[in-house]
Write a structure and sequence with these properties.
Length: 366
């Protein structure tokens, strides 16, 4: 099968020509490399954006000072390095890792459930995690020392509860893709209503904390959040890459055909959906609700590198990181020195992109 050529598409120059798998893989690898470079460039720009001002030289000096352990004696230099290292670098890095995590989760859901409209949000996982985190804020307070851990635990608990409910209904009732989406919408509305009830009865301080959190934001990012997400992606992403062949079999051939190819479908689906739910819950616990990345990023990635999960998962992570970093940068620039939460910008950017994909590239999302 590797010798079967594929036609070049999209340009007049490609008409009548063919591109063999080796050329196609080279193109996909190049696209991934360029995407990584784009993430690095936008990250550097994002670190420089802020009211205190920072140059590329300041960023390099800050990293060099951290590597060598040299503390600047000049007070102004020390201040700007502190702002860069303690505020901006964690913020941008969390946006990169959070966007990548949500995009990977969306890719897994869409492939495993064979439904292009599935995402952590449409399945109700994000609203469930939001409800769990809101409960944690009410119980432990908006500023309590134990609030950080309780947010993660609450988000994880209810996201897994929602995931288990969706999967059990899908398996016992043999739900088709449309019915599965409707179940997800119903659960999203349910957990959204429960979160609204908490907001209605909460005191002003707690209410303000919940509302700010549900907007989605990477404000007040901390290094421990970066390290947790980095470790989580470092553990789960190699597994996802390892299972790319099984994911392809399930997504393209279906369960029965995948089983004949030797794929342990039930095990792969359970483990992969558990990974997707964990990535979603932990990210949302740190950033609040960010809805469109997990839905839009996989579709954009498919248009560029195709549907092979060997490349799709990686490029989806890159697109997700870019979407969130750019959204955060735009949110800080539009009403500077004020900040528009990244979840709002993400929705404003993601909704038109998704509408464009539906209206002009319908075959790409079928």
């Amino acid at each position: 099968m590797n010798s079967i050529p594929t036609r070049l598409a999209g340009t007049p120059e490609g008409a009548g020509k063919v591109r063999r798998p080796r050329d196609r893989y080279a193109y996909q690898t190049t696209a991934i490399a360029l995407g990584i470079v784009a993430v690095l460039i936008t990250a550097i720009i994002g670190v420089q954006i802020g009211t205190s001002g920072a140059t590329f030289g300041n960023v390099l000096e800050t990293f060099w000072a951290k590597i060598t352990g040299v503390v600047p004696t000049d007070r102004a230099t020390l201040q700007i390095q502190t702002v860069i290292w303690e505020l901006r670098v964690p913020r941008v890095t969390l946006a990169i890792l959070g966007g990548a995590a949500l995009a990977v989760a969306g890719t897994l859901f869409q492939g495993l459930l064979r439904n292009p409209l599935v995402s952590p949000y449409t399945l109700g996982i994000a609203p469930a995690a939001a409800f769990g985190a809101s409960l944690a804020i009410v119980i432990f307070g908006a500023t309590a020392g134990s609030a950080a851990l309780s947010l993660v635990i609450g988000a994880l608990l209810f996201s897994f509860l929602n995931t288990a409910l969706v999967l059990s209904l899908a398996s016992t009732k043999n739900l088709n893709p449309t019915s599965l989406i409707l179940v997800g919408i119903a659960l999203s509305q349910l957990f959204g209503a429960l979160t609204a009830c908490i907001q209605y009865f909460a005191e002003d301080e707690v209410l303000a904390a919940i509302v700010r959190w549900t907007w989605g934001s990477v404000n007040n990012s901390a290094w421990y959040q970066v390290l947790v997400l980095l470790a989580l992606l470092g553990i789960t992403f190699p597994y996802v890459r390892y299972r790319s062949g099984a994911l392809n079999a399930i997504a393209f051939a279906g369960d029965d055909s995948a089983k004949t190819l030797g794929v342990a479908v039930s095990r792969v689906r359970l483990e992969s959906i558990g990974i997707a739910a964990t990535l979603t819950a932990v990210t949302i616990a740190f950033t609040g609700i960010i809805g469109f990345v997990g839905l839009v990023a996989p579709h954009i990635a498919r248009l560029v590198v195709g549907s092979n999960h060997r490349f799709l998962t990686t490029f989806s992570a890159i697109i997700g990181a870019l979407l969130l970093v750019v959204s955060d940068a735009v949110g800080r620039l539009v009403i500077s020195p004020g900040v528009i939460p990244v979840g709002i910008i993400d929705a404003l950017v993601g909704a038109p992109i998704f509408l464009y994909l539906i209206l002009t590239r319908q075959k790409a999302i079928e």
